[in-house]
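Exercise 7.
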Amino acid sequence: MLTLEIERGAGRLRYAVSGRNHGQPLLLLHPLGADLEVWRQQLPELEQRFRVVRMDLRGHGGSALAEGAPAPCAMTDLLDDACAVLDAQGIARAHWCGLSLGGAVALQAAVTAPQRVRRLVLADTAASFPPRERWDERIATVLAHGIWLDDADLVRLRETGAQVAFCPSFQVGRSPRRAFFCTSAISSSFMPAK
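Solution. The predicted structure, written as tokens, is:
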């Protein structure tokens, strides 16, 4: 696995490349408050068939904003970052797989840069998101408690109106990490034949 960085006007982006050098490229995009390591459990399976590219979105993990760069950014800015990572690897088209925020970036790619998308896998994402105030609340929760929330955090989030993050049938008491295990379905649902 290679861990690399590229400089962009808004800062430095960290990304990792692993798997088959001549395999079809697969770009994995993480959710808000996570980083490229969120995909670690899926790598052994995915690396057998794909050239896997994972990146840290702006302000996440090993990516850093440049001094004076505006912190707020648009979905198109995140898309431009993802395309810059692919360009740095000489990749014109890739399979895009995104979880939550990463899924929104992948969806933006399908809409505004379809020539860059082979296949699209969207997990736990949406075409539009709540107003900025709701995001600020979620960001504060992630900064204070991390991405892995316990039952008390989930109850508090539901009580403060953040239930949009959970389906109506969501039950407190389930492991929040369970949501990330569903991404293992990727290995059977969009693998090309050997």
